[in-house]
Amino acid sequence: MPASHRIAVIPGDGIGTEVVAVARQVLDAVSARHDLTLTYTELDWSCQRFLSEGAMMPADGLETLSGHDAILLGAVGWPGVADHVSLWGLLIPIRRTFRQYVNLRPIRVFDGVESPLRAARAGEVDFVVVRENVEGEYSEVGGRVNRGFPDEQAVQESIFTRAGVSRIADYAFELAATRRGQVTSATKSNGIVHTMPFWDEVVAERAAAHPGVRLDSEHIDALAAKFVLQPQRFDVVVASNLFGDILSDLAAAVAGSIGIAPSANLDPTRTYPSMFEPVHGSAPDIAGTGVANPVGAVWSAALMLEHLGHPRAAADVVAAIESTLADPATRTADLGGTAKTEQVAEALLALI
Ligand SMILES: NC(=O)c1ccc[n+]([C@@H]2O[C@H](COP(=O)([O-])OP(=O)(O)OC[C@H]3O[C@@H](n4cnc5c(N)ncnc54)[C@H](O)[C@@H]3O)[C@@H](O)[C@H]2O)c1
């Protein structure tokens, strides 16, 4: 019997709708080849919906999603809707309710994609940022007092739990064991004197439980510089929510373009659906012009196939991505090419 999965699709805003359309075509092609059945529920949850109905998603939105095996998301955000509304009205509730505590962001320099860095050659840069995705610096604890007065104050608390740090560290160590066996932990224990020494202690404790993996720890400022100067030296980089957010965008830029960067929001326990989305946003500056690079969304779809237990189908998609990037005729403008979204889609489908 063919394997079948129910996928909730949230194209979102701007180029999110354009790149997800390509990812779906690629998924259909690769599913046909690998005897998989994917059934989709397409959801119009977006800033457009917020403007017409007052909410990014319906009140029972999370319940709707919970009936699916995975979620494929494009991007949300649009001028006229504050970014914290689109983030806290959709993405953050999904990540938190479904305990997607791992944010996984693979980085590779591909043949044909020029990194802005002289030292980064194809094949040599291949690492993964594992970002803690549900606690840390992005917390709801805090508040504002004395609004509008000269003594106005804002307080924002960070929340680091032993359970939260342990499980993200374990995920990083287990992932490194399947790769080159090296974990780099991002810290700032010299300046942030409570949470970061705690992070370091718990990561070191978990390292002891994974003797086959090497651990080093770097302050976030030095680590940012090393991403630029020596991107080849990294295998798995584990970081708190804020540090991981910043590092993964930096890493995507190091790899040549944010247009190719994928991400997975994972509940490794598989109790809830995980969510797969390109790193980029809705790009209002190019939306509707047909030039968006669909590779980030298509690579995210490949991560989804892998998570659903279909590594061979995922590998076919990644191989097709490698071929289109290696060919100047199928590179989009963000990579210095002239191909339109549609031409990349056609090339990917032909390869699969
Ligand atoms: N996860 C998400 O849904 C997500 C992530 C980031 C930003 N956003 C939202 O997207 C909106 C725009 O944000 P932004 O401009 O800071 O970031 P962005 O990623 O949308 O765009 C940044 C730049 O990169 C270019 N770019 C991005 N993706 C591309 C692609 N696939 N192909 C070619 N070029 C591409 C854009 O044209 C733009 O110049 C905001 O509302 C923001 O909140 C959403």
Question: What's the layout of helices and strands?
Answer:
Layout: E1 3-12, H1 15-34, E2 36-42, H2 47-53, H3 61-66, E3 70-75, H4 83-97, E4 102-108, E5 126-132, E6 142-145, E7 153-156, H5 162-177, E8 182-187, H6 195-208, E9 214-219, H7 220-229, E10 236-239, H8 241-254, E11 262-266, E12 274-278, H9 295-307, H10 311-326, H11 341-351
Parallel strand pairs: 1-2, 1-3, 3-12, 5-10, 8-9, 8-10
Antiparallel strand pairs: 4-5, 4-11, 6-7, 11-12
Give a short synopsis of this structure.
With 352 residues, the protein is of the alpha/beta class.
What does it look like?
There is one protein chain. The chain is an alpha/beta fold and 352 residues long. α1 packs parallel to α11, α7 packs parallel to α8 and α10 packs across α11. A 10-stranded mixed beta sheet has the order 2-1-3-12-11-4-5-10-8-9, with helices on both faces. It has a two-stranded antiparallel sheet with strand order 6-7. It contains 11 helices and 12 strands. The site of nicotinamide-adenine-dinucleotide has 24 residues, from α1 and α4.
